[in-house]
Amino acid sequence: MSNLVLFPVVIPLIFAAILMLFPKKLHMQRAVAIAGVVATLASALVLFSKVNSDGVQAVTLGSWPAPFGISMVSDMFSVLLVLSSTIVTLFVLFYSIPTIGMKREQSFYYPAVLFLMTGVNGAFTTGDIFNLFVFIEVLLMASYALIVHGGEKPQLRESIKYLLVNIISSALFVSAVAYLYSVTGTLNMADLAVKIPQIEAVGILTVIAVLFLVVFGFKAAIFPLYFWLPGSYFAPPMAILALFGALLTKVGVYAIMRTYTLFFTMNTGFTHELLAIIAILTILAGCVGALAYFDVKKIIIYNIIIAVGVILFGISQMNAAGIEGSIFYLVHDMLIKAALFLLVGILTVIFGTSDLRKMGGLIKSYPIFGWTFLVAAFGLAGIPPLSGFPGKLLIVQGGFEGTHFWGSLVILATSLLVLLSVVRIFIYAFWGEPVKIVPIDRKHYLSMFVPTAILVALTVVLGVGAELFMPFISDAGEVLLNPSLYIDAVLKE
Amino acid sequence: MEIVMSVAIGLLFMAAVYLMLSKSLIRIIIGTGLLSHGAHLLLLTMGGLGGTAPPVVADGVSVSDYADPLPQALILTAIVISFAVTSFFLVLAYRAYQELGTDNMELLRGTEDYE
């Protein structure tokens, strides 16, 4: 019993509510928003050290006994994700200040970001499947506000589709919860993990598991449910895109990882096989998109889809290497995607366009920016010793140890395509004949570049110091591999 | 009773799918409304329709008579959420109609600005 678990969820909520009181006071908005995220980060760090020393933390709201109240559970996996999502939000906020525009800042931009954070941290922390639905709705509501924020024509057009897709997947979510409840009679995840192995109707549970895969697949953008993502993510400004790319799909991925390791394990021969096949198809579909476009935003957006496939493939193997790899890669991907989107954002500001064919020769005027971009690109593709490498290595190892060596081969081969897709940006934008660029003053450039560079530096630390972080990753993997640790923490307090 | 409910849910889902496949934005929004109604009804039915007494301790009522309170609590939450989302969608549709001058989804494809 520890209320500490709730802090990363409640703190941004309170700060967002405070921020709504004075929308027009620019400096106050910025200061309070950053203070809110820093406070959340501090509480997440305290929670992290608590989980690290005392194991899984759980609290059931209203002091009800565990399966009846709503449980919030923080194991190493969820606290790592809470920590990385908070870090990403902090840097994106620093990046938003110079780029998002005064008008947006004064129309509830910061409260929306903090509400998004409430939803994301809540979804990572909750231990109840219906509560997961509620937190996903909270973050979706904030994301609806953010995706249409500013009301430009493409934003309005794309947010209609984004909203529609998410309403349909929410209705499916409610239906899936209904089926699950009628079969098991409980919605507490730990309790589900106890009851599902006792139920003999494996066929029905398999159908429910696949229905949940569809529901979370919509959020996570797996093949073939990713169709909405490239269009919708293309519309909002870069800071919002970085938040979405780093956090939103990861919530879906987290939900699949949690449910498929904790309780949908009754028929792994079918469900995890399906997951592995879908994961590989997702990677391939993402690669096609990443190579097909000449638009820098599109290239990185399709790289989100590739990463989702890689992470899910690791989970589908259900062995220590695969799961640890997935966790490492998930944390890496949150940081590197945010960093890449911010870098690409600076590119589009400098060139005034996001079309690669109209860029060129930037290495002479912005050398440090160029090399930072190259480091981030190599990190994404997983070149050792950068942060993409350890995760991918473990996932590939998991595939070879499991039954899907062909999946590992596809991941290795597509790593080259990922590298090609991002290095193409480097070649087009930084090499070749210099083209006319939009003059921006040094201070404005630095205010965008510094938070981005720190984020890239963090991913380098994560990669080079992988040995340092591995104990936490294997802690997280251990809870996913042994559901009894999770169950005991929730049900026996 | 469950059979009747199931048929009703099926009809709601059917109507919702039909409406959401049309081109007009307002029909799509009505479709999403029907879809969430269907989902809520499904939640109620799946939770079991049995139980004759409210789940409150009272004289002469045994535990087996209680109606299951959980599906009702879940539906209440889900209804509030779908209410909020539908109202947001309506405002968004109106604003989009003002800015873009159309509510025809065929014209809102939006692939023209990137090749």
TrEMBL record, chain B:
Keywords: Cell membrane, Membrane, Transmembrane, Transmembrane helix. InterPro entries: CPA3_antiporter_subunitC (IPR050601), NUOK/Mnh_C1-like (IPR039428). The chain crosses the membrane at residues 6-21, 28-53, 73-97. Pfam families: Oxidored_q2. GO terms for cellular component: plasma membrane. Its main location: membrane. It is a multi-pass membrane protein. It is found in: Cell membrane. Gene3D superfamilies: 1.10.287.3510. PANTHER family: ANTIPORTER SUBUNIT MNHC2-RELATED. Belongs to the CPA3 antiporters (TC 2.A.63) subunit C family. NCBIfam families: PRK08600.1, PRK09094.1. This is Na(+)/H(+) antiporter subunit C. The lineage of its organism: Bacteria, Bacillati, Bacillota, Bacilli, Bacillales.
